[in-house]
Specification:
Its main location: secreted. The chain contains 10 helices and 40 strands. The protein is an alpha+beta fold and 648 residues long. The chain is globular, with a radius of gyration of 28 Å.
């Protein structure tokens, strides 16, 4: 071997040794490259992350051209199995945002975390984007997949059903429907609207971090429907694609029974961390609601979501996440809403009296009701000018009849004082209810008139509502009042100015009761305020239950209302088991309770000694116009049994 050959072999071996010991190349791959529909998972695989750190993170971007700090969400690699090896995989279900996606891996250091200047809603530092390690290729959704965000609503008129949905281009789309899947022989067109970034009132809703194109919102009304029938429908176009075929059941004209599902403050779940907290419990709420709706079969019903709808708070892609989550239920039963603070409140809102200066703030994330007003259309024509270039806020107050119940919705975020449009509406509406047709009246709003949750800044609002709204409720014999905002369940005795009601006898057989107030803000939002402390222990975790509060719980869930001409029942269903946690019965005005009606032993505020006393308590409770129930029968025994008043 000559010296030249030896040198060549030595160099070759040196290079082989160098490259065999070098760190593997950092790679990231994504499959599939094209998704067929919202909710389909994308599989992300990476390898070659050198010296993995617990702060390495995967950023999710849409559109793919977004700057590094404009992610829609992120996942810490250390939350995934095997991250210490520098390799890993994760599957993420994606919602169609009408633009492509990209994924990027970043390194974030301890010192950068300690010196962070940007924080999320919970004051956690947002991950830094200074050191990007690798970026994936772009992926997207196939065209022609049809509209999304399909949801129904009652119009307030017989023989009609509204359907709304979103498309990426706003081109001509129709609704075709009929009595069988094979013959969708009726067709209606849609009106189209959209909103722009400039319509929003404050950041993050009107800056480039929070804004994403919302698409075009279509609104169609199916007409000439036969009452009490099951209809099939489909939305879309030949060019843009058609949705799946959905179905719904129309209300009956003279129904003798009403079933409705009600809750507040649900929000949406997301498969990643984002700028604001998302609501993981909301997916359980939707799961159990779907179970109960399917169990009804071909019986009409609707859903009532009383404020704090998506909790997008200016991060617009969370509206897409929300509508994708509710479509399985909202495409088959009407989905009704009223406005909450997280849809509306912003610093310069037009109605902000001195007594509410600390109440109405920036909870809406700068949306000032714009997405809420465009994405839903409730009965009536209530609206409130914003005082800015933003369009007027809609869906503030309205009412509708459904079976034997008259439902009324109010806004606690806009003027409800005497002289306002809303006050006049409430007064006229409640005074004109036909109690022969709808013997029960249910009023709903977001912020509660009554709650034992300790939120001092809410006290001025409650005082104003008790002063001005409660007299309307009592005078017009409202049966039930439902509130959200407090993320718990709490049922009160029939109330008038903090006083548990006793019945007044008006005529021989006409029994009147104060309204029963119940807080049902346990739909999914996971932040829960504490109960009111004892006055002599303001700093201690001592939370006595006031006598007006008959049952309260921290279990997430929803309520189910079932009413006939004579009796209304409200059931509280918990998310962790899908079972009954509380129940209240309310008799219709003019229905005299029987002295010997059976009463189940439930979680109540009183004691029972034996079965005969239970019957007596049931008799007294019916005189109050309601009967309280709980989850389980109490085993009969000869001793005193304390029945729970709180479910924690």
């Amino acid at each position: 071997m000559n010296p030249l050959q030896f040198s060549f072999i030595f160099l070759h071996l040196t290079l082989l040794l160098h490259f065999s010991s070098a760190a593997p190349a950092l790679t990231i791959s994504v499959t599939p490259k094209t998704l067929s529909k919202s909710g389909d998972p994308v599989h992300i695989q990476w390898s070659g992350v050198e010296s993995p750190s617990r702060l390495d993170w995967l950023g999710i971007y849409s559109p793919s051209t977004s700057p590094n700090d404009h992610f829609i969400g992120y996942i810490f690699l250390s939350s995934l199995a095997g991250w210490e090896s520098g390799s890993g995989t994760v599957s993420i279900p994606l919602v169609n945002l009408r633009s492509d996606y990209q994924f990027r891996i970043f390194r974030w250091t301890e010192s950068e975390m300690m010196n962070a200047t940007s924080f999320d809603q919970d004051h956690n530092p947002l991950p830094g984007t200074e050191h990007m390690l690798v970026a994936s290729e772009e992926i997207g959704f196939q065209p022609g997949m049809g509209p999304e965000h399909v949801h129904l609503a009652l119009t307030g008129r017989l023989h009609e059903m509204r359907v709304m949905f979103v498309t990426p281009d706003g081109k001509n789309n129709t609704v075709r429907y009929g009595l069988t899947e094979q013959n969708l022989d009726q067709v209606v067109g849609t009106e189209v609207s959209r909103y722009e970034r400039e319509d929003m009132c404050h950041p993050p809703a009107n800056d480039f971090v929070g804004w994403r194109d919302p698409g075009y919102i279509h609104d169609g009304v199916m007409t000439n429907l036969i009452n009490g029938k099951k209809y099939y429908y489909q939305v879309g176009s030949d060019s843009g694609g058609w949705s799946d075929i959905f179905s719904f059941v129309t209300p009956k004209t003279h129904s003798k029974k009403t079933v409705v599902f009600l809750f507040g403050d649900m929000g949406t779940a997301a498969p990643y961390i984002t700028f604001d907290r998302t609501q993981e419990e909301s997916s359980s709420t939707v799961k159990w609601l779907l179970r109960d709706i399917e169990a009804l079969g071909d019986k009409p019903t609707f859903i009532s979501h009383i404020g704090d709808i998506s909790y997008a708070r200016g991060y617009s892609w969370l509206w897409d996440q929300f509508f994708h989550q509710i479509q399985p239920i909202a495409s088959r039963v009407p989905y009704h809403v009223c406005i909450g603070n997280h849809e509306y409140d912003w610093p310069s809102q037009p109605w902000k009296p001195d007594w509410a200066s600390k109440l109405y703030g920036s909870d809406g994330g700068g949306e000032c009701g714009v997405p809420y007003s465009h994405r839903f259309k409730m009965p009536g024509n209530s609206s409130q000018v914003t005082g800015t270039s933003a369009p007027a806020t809609r869906n503030l107050f309205y009412s509708l009849d459904f079976g034997v119940v008259h439902f009324v919705y109010m806004s606690t975020e806009t003027n409800f004082l005497p002289g306002s449009d809303q006050y006049e509406f409430l007064k006229n509406d409640l005074e004109s209810v036909d109690r022969q047709k709808t013997p029960f009246v249910v009023v709903q709003g977001h912020r509660p008139m009554y709650s034992t949750c300790n939120r001092p800044k809410e006290i001025p609002l409650r005082k104003k509502m008790i002063e001005h709204i409660e007299p309307l409720l009592v005078k017009n014999k409202v049966s039930l009042v439902l509130w959200g905002h407090v993320h718990r369940y709490e049922r009160f005795c029939p109330l008038n100015n903090y006083t548990c009601g006793s019945l007044e006898k008006n005529g021989e057989d006409n029994w009147e009761a104060y309204p029963v107030h119940i807080v049902i803000g346990m739909g999914g939002q996971d932040w829960q305020g504490q109960w009111l402390q004892r006055e002599d222990h303001p700093s201690d975790p001592v939370f006595p239950q006031p006598e007006q509060s008959l049952f309260r719980a921290g279990e997430y869930g929803y309520t189910k209302l079932v009413a006939t001409k004579k009796k209304l029942k409200l059931f509280y269903i918990g998310n962790h088991d899908g079972k009954l946690h509380d129940m209240v019965e309310i008799m219709a005005p003019g229905v005299a309770p029987s002295a010997f009606m059976e009463m189940e032993a439930m979680d109540c505020w009183y004691y029972v000694k034996n079965l005969s006393l239970m019957v007596l308590v049931g008799f007294v409770a019916y005189f109050l116009g309601f009967t309280s129930h709980c989850r389980r029968n109490v085993t009969e025994n000869s001793g005193w049994t304390r029945l729970k008043a709180e479910d924690v």
